[in-house]
Write a structure and sequence with these properties.
Length: 382
């Protein structure tokens, strides 16, 4: 039941990535639960408990995007030695399949049977708009597609892939002030939702894929120098970098503006959440690298949670938001609970998901005959 951190296999050398993903997904679960259920009268930014919770909640998405880009790119580069480079790399095909799967699941989770009632009632617009909401899965899927395209571009132009990933990451941050106020109303809604921030969705391609591209750079570095994962030196670099971004990134952006006269640096400095949160991502990365090095044995359930993030995300959408059936915690306790009630419910939910991952293999075995029967039913006759 334990993962040996000193193991020399490539899988165990990057256990810290799954630890990061486990942290991010469990933080997301409790964050969504509390945000959906906490009564507005308790949302006091001057309260140290609430402000601390809100600060930590804001860290979740950047860490999740960063670690997703890191693990996918690491596996993409690693596959080169087995199946070849460029289009021959099997991870390219898997990445494209992952992209379509995440986009499909993302839209499916926004579907619910009440849309059918809206359609029958003639309220086509409401059903249509609700179906097209963009969330985390759509952005991660888009980030994977972008990583694959950048990888192919680097392969066939012989440019350094890590250089293109870094340029892409910096560009998504730098051009965010230009994209945010732009009017995308001329685009079809299913496209504009990916680039224009709306009332019901807060994630857009720019700037959020930037975190995944920054993660890709680290994924490439780990692939090229795997032993550095087990060193404290890399962890120290990320810790210092995170500290500098947290405390001094605004001043750095102002200095860059004064040096270049590029107005976007000024806009980024005055609304500096991107590099500020990137600093927190670097600190979290450092912390889990250190954990990876200090603790020789980590309970296998922890990295297992990190490897089952998609499963947890899908189930949490049903449990909290009542996806498809519209019968979840939010529908029953939305904006109505006290902090202690939210804490208790969040704790129960975290235990539930830990238990779900612990028994995930027996659960899958239980449903395996059903899946086989469905395949037989749907398989066309020769």
């Amino acid at each position: 039941m334990f993962v040996t951190m000193q193991d020399s296999s490539p899988k165990n050398r990057i256990v810290f990535i799954d630890l990061m993903r486990a942290f991010a997904i469990l933080m997301m679960v409790q964050g969504h639960l509390v945000d959906a259920c906490l009564d507005p009268i308790f949302r006091d930014p001057n309260n140290i408990i609430y402000s601390t919770w809100n600060f930590m909640r804001g860290m979740t998405a950047p860490v999740f995007f960063f670690s997703s880009g890191m693990i996918f790119t690491y596996l993409l580069m690693k596959e080169e030695s087995k199946s070849g480079i460029g289009i021959r790399n099997k991870r390219v095909k898997k990445g494209l399949f992952r992209f379509t799967t995440l986009i499909f699941i993302g839209y499916l989770l926004h579907f619910n049977f009440w849309f059918l009632w809206d359609i029958l009632d003639g309220k086509l617009d409401r059903a249509y708009h609700s179906m097209l909401i963009v969330d985390v899965l759509h952005i991660i899927g888009t980030a994977i597609l972008l990583i694959v395209l950048i990888y192919l571009l680097a392969t066939y132009t012989r440019l350094k892939v890590y250089f293109l990933m870094l340029i892409g990451a910096l560009a998504t941050f730098y051009y965010y002030p230009d994209i945010e106020p732009f009017d995308f109303s001329s685009l079809p809604e299913f496209l504009s939702n990916y680039v224009a921030k709306g009332k019901q969705f807060s994630f857009t391609i720019i700037p959020w894929v930037g975190y995944s591209l920054f993660g890709s750079v680290l994924g490439i570095f780990i692939w090229s120098r795997p032993k550095t994962v087990n060193s404290y030196f890399l962890a120290f670099i990320f810790l210092v970098s995170g500290y500098l971004l947290h405390f001094y990134s605004t001043d750095m952006l102002i200095d860059l503006y004064e040096l270049t006269d590029w107005i976007n640096f000024k806009h980024l400095a005055y609304n500096n959440f991107l590099f500020y949160r990137l600093g927190h991502v670097f600190i979290v990365t450092s912390v889990f690298m250190i954990i990876n090095n200090i603790f020789r044995n980590i309970p296998a359930i922890i990295p297992k949670i990190g490897s089952e993030t998609l499963t947890i995300y899908i189930v949490h959408a049903f449990v909290i938001y009542g996806s498809i059936f519209q019968f979840g915690i939010a529908q029953n306790f939305g904006k109505a609970l006290t902090p202690w009630e939210c804490f208790t419910l969040a704790l129960i939910l975290e235990i539930f998901f830990i238990a779900l991952v612990y028994y995930i293999e027996p659960i899958r075995e239980f449903f395996k005959p059903i899946r086989k029967k469905l395949k037989l039913v749907t398989k066309p006759k020769s």
